[in-house]
Specification:
homodimer, flat, 129 residues, 5 strands, DNA-binding
DNA sequence: CTGCATGCAAAAACTTTGCACCGCC
DNA sequence: GGCGGTGCAAAGTTTTTGCATGCAG
């Protein structure tokens, strides 16, 4: 693949953050480094990097898709109050694939899961009020 | 809430099918019963019924949102080959909420999970070829 | 009658794409 | 220099919304 400054910026930004940004957020954050970059290029590279397995696309939530530069398998949490998306530190749930396969005639290849509730910040804020 | 023929048709259709239709599919299928209904009304009622908890909205997949008239908690499977969305017969995975909460400072209220792989039809078709 | 729900169409939100140009190899 | 990547803008897809009208209560 041919090198491009734009793609490098996008990847570098995604590797540097844990905030699961949308395409628009990625665009805003690399604009200072690439004053002429276009949103279309950001989308093209996010799609490409996702296909290459360098990053992953999170479609599980409401609103625009989010992207995650953390390649290690992990699960996500979304706060019902403020909408924040956080990484969870937990072991793989691969055993649930077997539970799903038990009464199923096809083939289970994997799963995605996400959790919701109140994030640490919103949970503590509620106690105060 | 004020009665409406349109809303009743939408709900009746969703209760009658297991195919997890998109708003567009719902629209097409109730058009014969409501020749003048508009897609906007379908969206409005799907959103309303989701808020009331009568149906649920599935945002986990690529493409347009899907809707599910089956109120019983259950998990979904999506075929990587043909895209079909099926219900899975499996017990609740509520224990995974505890696993998620273990290293997390906020509050875990619930989870969603879906599985992917090959559906019964595509899996058997592949064996033949 | 009163007001919520509808039909219609415009617009918003998100994403992809065609095309000419630019820069890596 | 060739070709893949970019910028730009137009268009595609999905969903929401403003407004005038219509029907349930």
């Amino acid at each position: 693949m041919k090198y491009s400054k734009q793609r490098e910026s996008i990847l570098k930004y995604l590797r540097s953050t844990k905030c699961h940004p949308t395409a628009e957020t990625v665009y805003q954050n690399i604009l200072s480094e690439n004053p002429n970059i276009s949103l279309g290029t950001v989308y093209r590279n996010l799609t490409l990097l996702t296909e290459l397995g360098e990053i992953s696309k999170i479609t599980d939530f409401e609103g625009p898709d989010r992207f995650d530069g953390n390649n290690a398998p992990h699960y996500h949490f979304v706060c019902r109050e403020c909408g924040a998306v956080l990484d969870l530190e937990m072991d793989s749930l691969s055993h649930i694939n077997l539970l799903a396969a038990h009464n199923f005639n096809g083939t289970i290849e994997g799963h995605t899961a996400h959790f919701y509730g109140k994030c640490p910040h919103c949970a503590s804020h509620n106690l105060e009020s």
